[in-house]
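Cross-posted from the bioinformatics board.
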Amino acid sequence: MNEEQLSYDVYDDRCPTRDVLARLADKWALLVLGRLEREPLRFNHLKREIGGITQKVLTQTLRRLERDGFVSREVYATVPVTVEYSLTPLGKTLTKTVTILARWVEDNMDSILQAQTNFDNGCRTVMPG
Amino acid sequence: MNEEQLSYDVYDDRCPTRDVLARLADKWALLVLGRLEREPLRFNHLKREIGGITQKVLTQTLRRLERDGFVSREVYATVPVTVEYSLTPLGKTLTKTVTILARWVEDNMDSILQAQTNFDNGCRTVMPG
DNA sequence: CGGCATCCCGAGGGATACTG
DNA sequence: CAGTATCCCTCGGGATGCCG
């Protein structure tokens, strides 16, 4: 019983893993995790590095990631307060996968653009030789 | 110039890779891709296997995945028409990563639940010993 | 069976203003 | 600097009905 045989299943919509997957399957969450893999960063630094993210969304994203135990929030009582975000050990094991996904998209973008063009031209069946 | 040096960057919000990442960073898209890795499936079969997905959303998701060149749609002119979805070669290279993410969540769910409990109890700093 | 069309609602997220 | 608090509005996605 201690072993996980009939344990978690993301394909079951009542499984709690579904919620976690939904939070990870988020553009902003993936970008934040990917960026934190390299090094811990302060709030505004993180905001500047992630093009197009707003302050509100970054805060929300960081809170969720913190709640799930992927990100750690460290407050330093400097003159203007400094807050540094970093990956937890759990979060580090996760980012291996996350960054791979982002890299994959970048590496295969040309193929994707080609596919989009074909699709948009009505060529939805297999190309001729 | 033909080489990709200053090529694509998902952290640039004007980069086309950002849109693709956003479509992949989607709960339903990940589940569909993950399920298709095992075998090609018909529409309603796919719908039954993915708990909680509606017909509309599944259709949308499949169209996007098809447009980006990850999924192939095959129509068979049987009596009630049969439509089979499968991964393209490009899609197959992608799912390696996708399924890892789903598996990761399932494997680490216990740690995540623990982290959530700590967070919700106001214990947002490092645990003692 | 495998969709498309329509209506509709609630959450997500942008913009803006304010605070410790 | 690192947020919180509102307003507001889009749009994702559920429900339902119809079609080839």
